[in-house]
Amino acid sequence: MSDSDPNASSQASGEDDPRIPTRPLFGFILVLMPIVGVFLVTIAYVVMWSLGLAGRSAQGEEVTWRFSGCEAALPLLEARLDDVGLSATWTSTSGGYTVTTQLTGDETVDEGLPAMLTTPADLEIRAGDQVLATSADVTDASVRMDIFMVPFVLLKVDEDAAERIKVHVRQDPEGKMAFHVDGRKIGWQSNANPVAIGELEVNLELEGDEKDRMQAVASWSVTLDHGPLPCSVTFRGETVPVGRARDPS
Hints:
It is a single chain. By secondary structure, the protein is of the alpha+beta class. The protein has six helices and eleven strands. The chain has a single domain, classed as Gyrase A, domain 2 (2-Layer Sandwich).
């Protein structure tokens, strides 16, 4: 009778060890799916970032709009329209200004531009009756998308506001913060949201489809990044150039 180990001989011959069960192909696919998912999401972020940097050329008609307001608001209005990606010529007038620009060609976006430009954008971040931060504490506003490609307004605040918010979140980890703009609540963030200190993700309270949400997120990110306006600004309508008939509608 031989004392040799049959398992050792199978290993020496290059055969699979029968003591180690083989995994089915389905199990291998399950293990691989999260890795592939992360890879695809990363590619999607890179593509979207590249498209954002490249921008999209305006394809709409050229318009001249009239606004009334103080001179101090003009730089903020210029910055807001520039963030949308539209080249414009601003001219100061008596009691206000005019802007000449080529619209995007997207009817929904173009119709919302006057309201976006004239929104005061006076922000308060509240926890109940306590004001944790205001527009003066915001250092940047932009758009962030989660792993499911859902967009949020991303706010970054200065160190003092970040410290106040950090203390509040640790004291009330199950609570929420509310975002109020011009006296109206527009969204919230759970205190359990694991964002970096000094960052806030605004969950907008709105109805509509994904396009409506993206439009609202983009609009708020622009106004909160360049606000609040130092005075009331009012849209006075379009100046129709000589030779172009006004649309009777």
